[in-house]
Amino acid sequence: MFALLALDGSNRIVLSQAARDAKDAELDIITWTLERSGILADGNDGFYYQTIDQAIKRDGDLYKVLDVLAKDVGILGVFSDWAAPSRSAPTAWA
Questions:
Q1: C-alpha triplet 91, 45, 74: angle, nearest 5°
Q2: Considering only CA atoms, which of 75, 78, 77, 76 is closest in space to residue 18?
Q3: How many Å apart are CA 57 and CA 90, to the nearest integer?
Q4: What 3-state DSSP class applies to 78?
């Protein structure tokens, strides 16, 4: 997931250059995983959020990540270890 995301100059989560390249190549993308890092609000977001760690301030920021992945990166889906948040989010994309 971290390879698909970056921060812009205002510390907003945006698609990375790798994501742009994948879109340009018309690749279908399914990413993994949203919830392997535990509590996001503790500031130790770990491996999966390494490229956007500075923008993650609270657990709800997971939905910002999912929004960028869906709307900007254009992922087809998310493989998740715990699917509850991922299952509820697609209605917000409509």
A1: 35
A2: 75
A3: 23
A4: strand
Using CA atoms, how far apart are residues 1 and 89, in angstroms rounded to an integer? 17
C-alpha to C-alpha distance for 67 and 45, rounded to whole angstroms: 18
| Residue ranges of domains in the chain | 2-93
Residue holding tokens 């509850």?
84
Structure tokens at 29: 């993308």
pLDDT one-digit tens code per residue, 51-91: 888 888 888 888 899 999 999 999 998 886 665 555 555 55
Cα-based torsion angle of the residue sequence 21, 22, 27, 32 in order, rounded to the nearest 10 degrees: 180
